[in-house]
Design brief:
The protein has 259 residues and is an all-alpha fold. The protein is built from 15 helices and no strands. Helices cover 58% and strands 0% of the residues.
């Protein structure tokens, strides 16, 4: 698939009502990573807690995170595991999540103390989290760094569905190991940053509903389009219902959708 076809694919994804509605609802204030959290350390913890939570669990997740945010970061470090488990119980896997929290707090306090995370390169920070934080991986590291640095920091996190289904369809190189999340992330970011998407966003009237920056690549917008397209179409495993297939986009692979 060439560049022009990939751009056309993004436009078709963005035109789908299900995708459009989801992007508008989550662009300015994402329910998984709420914008009113100011402490970047808390953002790192919340991003890790958002993994392995299905979309159907979003209501329970929001309630659990609201309970979690009753604590400050310093209080979380001192709070007994049992109390944190009660707050996070709706999410399940509480012991695993507590191990992540303790490990991430240790990582923050020992490796990031007195450092300006804005000056740490994204790839370096993501890899370091994947290596040193219990329960983290490259995709978790991507989410943590994105949320900590801000929606439009330029990072485009890649979940397993994008890695295994959507990215191969669009012609991106991928793989079966966890490092493939990084491989796909870098390709998507390079593609997104090499184009000016504002014209498309205005054409599709997204600008009437969300706040799009005019001084940064629209990485967050493209990420939300792709993640929500994956959620509403790829996850159904019905290629014959895929708008990209119907539009005649020459997809490289649909094996992931057929499983």
């Amino acid at each position: 698939m060439n560049d022009i076809e990939q751009i056309r694919a993004i436009e078709i994804m963005a035109q789908q009502p299900e995708v459009r509605n989801a992007v508008i609802r989550s662009h300015d204030n994402n329910p998984w990573w709420p914008k009113d959290v100011e402490d970047w350390r808390m953002k790192m913890l919340i991003a890790g807690l958002s993994t392995r939570v299905s979309f159907r669990m979003l209501g329970s997740y929001i309630k659990a995170i609201d309970n979690f945010l009753k604590y400050t970061y310093e209080e979380i470090v001192q709070t007994p595991d049992e109390d944190l488990q009660k707050a996070l119980k709706p999410l399940g896997l509480t012991k695993t999540r507590i191990r992540f929290i303790r490990s991430m707090c240790s990582y923050i306090d020992n490796k990031l103390k007195n450092k300006n995370i804005e000056k740490i390169q994204d790839a370096e920070m993501i890899a370091d989290i994947a290596k040193n934080v219990s329960g983290a991986s490259y995709k978790v590291g991507q989410c943590c760094v994105l949320y900590a640095k801000g929606y439009y920091c330029g990072i485009m996190p890649v979940d397993s569905g994008i890695k295994d289904m959507l990215a191969p369809c669009l012609g991106y190189k991928t793989g079966k190991t966890s490092i493939a999340h990084e491989l796909v992330r870098k390709q998507l970011e390079n593609f997104t940053k090499s184009h000016n998407w504002m014209k498309m966003a205005i054409k599709l009237e997204y600008d009437k509903n969300i706040k799009l920056p005019d001084d940064k690549p629209l990485t967050w917008w493209i990420h939300l389009i792709m993640i929500n397209y994956k959620r509403h179409f790829c996850n159904n495993h019905k290629p014959n219902e895929c708008p990209l297939v119907k539009a005649g986009i020459p997809l490289n692979a649909i094996k992931g959708c057929q499983r």
